[in-house]
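Tokens as discussed.
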């Protein structure tokens, strides 16, 4: 499956690379690709420079990863073209993983209407502006609502990505990845499960 990681200037480095690490440890199942609106080099908030291909929404399939970061706020205010491209990309994939305030970008597409996502640490007024008709849940690490996976902080992207691997491939592959990382992962403790019971 293709794992399409969408980047923008001032993305949070680990928001993108934690999921990349997880999926990249199973190359027999996942192929990683990095995209941005204009292609070329994109720079994270921490100065990491990543070469990206041009985002062509019609060519997106399988899995989309949206990191958060300071640049997310700028995109929403100043780059509506990017939000529109992300909307089309989201519609074409089977799974969409959003890290921290990366979900704010997807909320602007309208694709999260009446969906449930994790809350994240950010300015409360800003979050309210961009989450009408979206249920934000506090106190959970990550959850899944249909094809949308969200996590409340960078650290929880590990659990979210492993949960996605379990759903897309199987539990055995996810557990092997966690073991190779030396990560004590409990596959039975999905934070969002109780929300739907």
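Sequence:
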């Amino acid at each position: 499956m293709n794992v399409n990681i969408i980047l923008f200037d001032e993305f949070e480095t680990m928001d993108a690379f934690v999921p990349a690490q997880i999926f990249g440890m199973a190359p027999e199942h996942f192929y990683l690709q990095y995209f941005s609106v204009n292609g070329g080099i994109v720079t994270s908030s921490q100065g990491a420079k990543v070469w990206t291909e041009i985002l062509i929404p019609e060519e997106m399939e399988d899995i989309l990863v949206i990191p958060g970061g300071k640049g997310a706020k700028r995109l929403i205010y100043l780059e509506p073209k990017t939000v529109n491209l992300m909307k089309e990309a989201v519609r074409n994939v089977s799974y969409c993983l959003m890290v921290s305030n990366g979900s704010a970008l997807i909320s602007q597409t309208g694709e999260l209407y009446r969906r449930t996502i994790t809350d994240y640490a950010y300015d409360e007024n800003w979050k309210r502006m961009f989450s009408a008709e979206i249920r934000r849940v506090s106190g959970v690490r990550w959850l899944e609502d249909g094809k949308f996976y969200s996590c409340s902080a960078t650290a929880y992207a590990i659990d979210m990505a492993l949960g996605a691997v379990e759903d897309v491939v199987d539990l055995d592959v996810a557990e092997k990845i966690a073991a190779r990382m030396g990560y004590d992962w409990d596959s039975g403790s999905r934070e969002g499960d109780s929300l739907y019971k």
